[in-house]
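Field reference: "sequence" (input) and "structure" (output). Example, Cutinase family protein:
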Amino acid sequence: MSSARRGSAVRRRSPLRRLLVLVAVVLVVLLVALLLWYLLAGRLTEPEPGRPGEPGAAPPTSQPASCPDVMVLSVPGTWESNAADDPYAPTANPASLMLKVTSELQNRFPPGRAEVYTVPYVAQFSNPIAFPPDGQASYNVSRSEGAARANEVLTQRFTDCPLTSYVLAGFSQGAVIVGDLAAAIGAGAGPVPADRVLGVTLIADGRRDGVSAQQIGAPVDGVGAEVALGGLDVPGITMTGERRGGFGALADRTYSICAPGDLICAAPPQAMSLRNIPSSLGALAGAAGNPVHGSYASYVVDDSGTTATAWTTEWAAGLIDSAPTPAHS
């Protein structure tokens, strides 16, 4: 082949080569960007399994005078807390649903009888498909922080106060956190022994499976959004499905409140589908702000007109009233 022909062939191939190189570079950049997005959005982390006392060890006969008889642990929902909030006098969101429960309990019981502790955490849910980004912490980051803080305070309280009893309650994202905590305790892997937990109430639990907890209110179709989207793992949002094993030793004292039409706890398959991830993510990100999800202060759960928050308050108060009174030293 003459040099002229070879030069012509090289010139013809050069644009194609440049195009292939450009495509390869673009793909690498996109892959790196997706990887960074995935990592920076945050991975879901689970607290270390608890070790609630030595198996078979006899409990002490008394505990320090500073210890409460009962600790009420409350975890607020999305946008109802922040990491710097005061756990004994929360002000991050005065309209927080759980405040309607905890404030009333604080008014009824002295701190020595019932320590009412509201877990402070970032409590956000960034929409991963928002453009520009909404600037919020991802669900994974928020949920992991709430779980870690709840576990930490219970671990510390049980260490300091081995005879204290516990009442656990949460709403929305907080219900997922409390439900996971209750499942771990019920399986013997939580921060406190199951026999120290008087009861658990989950309002709008995103991991509700419809069978593991006792339903308060009218029967509700559907399952929690995390169950409907079980297996979805996108930047910042890991849907963990149902709680395998349920609530174990706490199954007989764990209650669920879910209003019909609330996509967080009663999602129909057509609303949350892995086959249509973008619309499902949009529905999930918006579900926390829908009117039904925000209605639990007025949602009636029985024939007497009792609302979800009033029921939770009276349930917790009844447990506190009947809880043991440990000796103090």
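The helical segments are 3-40, 99-108, 139-160, 173-186, 225-228, 277-287, 308-322.
The beta strands are 70-75, 114-118, 165-171, 197-203, 214-216, 233-234, 237-238, 254-257.
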